[in-house]
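Lab notebook, page 48
Experiment: co-folding of the full assembly
Goal: obtain a model of how the components sit together before planning crosslinking
Operator: M.T.
Materials (sequences as entered):
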Amino acid sequence: MGNKILLEVRGLTKTFGSRTVVDRLNLRIEEGDIYGFLGTNGSGKTTTIRMITGLVHPDAGEVRIGGFHLKSQFKAAISLVGAIVENPAFYTYLSAYDNLKLTANLLPWVTRKRIDEVLEIAGLSDRAKDKVGTYSLGMKQRLGIAGALLNRPKLIILDEPTNGLDPQGMKGIKELIAQLAAEQGISFLISSHLLHEVEQICTKAGVIRKGKLIAEGEVRQLLASGEETVEIVTSEPDKAEQLLRSASEVISVSRSQDQLIVRTNGDCSFKLNQLLMTSGVHIRTISRRPRTLEQFFFDITEGGGEP
Amino acid sequence: MSKLIQCELFKVFRQKKLYLSMLILTAVEISAVFQIYREAAGFTGFGPNGQSFPLIVLHNSTFFIPILIAILVADSIAEEYRSGNLKNSLLCPVSRMDLLHAKIVSMFTVVAVLLIFLVLSSYVIGTLAFGWGERTVVDEIFYTFSEGVRLVAQIVLLSVPPNLAFGMIVIFVALLTTNPGGSIGAALVLLAVSPLVEGIPQVRDFFIGYQMRVIPFLPLHDMAAIDLWGGLAVIIVYFGVLYAGSVMMIRKKDILI
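Observation: model returned without errors.
Model output:
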């Protein structure tokens, strides 16, 4: 509470032809947030990020970064941001150092020492003089983050930062993000469809579908809200299933031998336990399955949009 | 702005394409030497020499420089867009207009570097092949060395504006299509149709291909001021219109790669 707003997006809209890709989108990122921006392919994530970074002109709405209006105060606004939009791009015939030097040339306050610092942070000091054409995808992503760090940004925007990476590469990027957030206080806006990762590293998340933000909040709160899945193992599965299906809180029951998987519309495992006990059903085990961001995402994107 | 220009020039001079272009120009000069040896080409009636050879090369390679410019300019805009590097520049606190101006300055530098390289290397190759000679000979007219150098300098200077206008066409097409092949293709088409358009006297004066071929070599002939200023006016109109179009394009362009 009371944190300074770093990024504020109001009523952002973009139409390509007759297709509205982003529709009156509002977004707010405060200092210290690691914001996961979730959505299926084609949901409007990248277009939103492109509008936030000034690469695409919105049809309506406004973007403010650190209080600066992106359209009228572009240089001041974009100076607070480091970004990788889709794949990081480099001149493959140049070394990592020379690529960063090119970017640093466009950032007047960035010194040569800073180039060495960001290469060190990204773990690329040893390969700094090698041509980028010889780099692996994971190294390119790390170099992209190094480039995004050059101007000591307050907000880093990463569009699918772990796309195409192997598990080790993904782990490296996640650790780097966590380290930068903890040690340098940098906020992040991370777009991804890899929900497990977002759940692991993000403090807040927003879900976009068909260009509209359909859910937003702290990851903990999002996972605590809405449906719950309860797993029950009983010696009388027929009777238990019948009873559970009649309960108003139950959305669906699926069965595998003695095990029943019950989807409910809230925190009601205690009630179900009571219902079965009072009806004389012998329960071997009853447990709540922790809700994952993946479940939440599917509930919200496949359903009507309510968590 | 100066930093942006510095960046653009850094990229130009670190690319193999520029040096490959110089190699191609050298190959053109060597082939001209062989042609002259076979008496198949050359407009100097008297035996060519190192002093006169740059004039022969400049005269016979009117369209080589524009092709190389098209390749390098398409690379600096359309290829950068396609590879995502243009996006990187636009994610920095620089204005799109400054970026366009830096690209134009970079194009001017490429034009100047290629023309100067063409002249200097043809002096060297011409001298190696035919010896330095006593006089500069053009169209059976003899000039002193200093007059010959002045003539070469005038031709080089007058080659710059039409090549810049041509480069501006490529910049505009590159911004419009964001397709390197398309941009180079458009430039080649323009050069290919040039002889056809030149056959129509009513329109040829307004055609950039014709002006590229004629304006630089006006000092070799009895230069009528009207030809020079008329040609330069056509080039200025080309440059101005295409610059305005490029400004509109870069301002409105959505960067989608």
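Interpretation: Chain A touches chain B at residues 50, 53-57, 74-76, 78-79, 81, 83, 85-91, 93-94, 98, 102-103, 105-108, 147 (CB under 8 Å).
Next step: discuss with group before ordering constructs.
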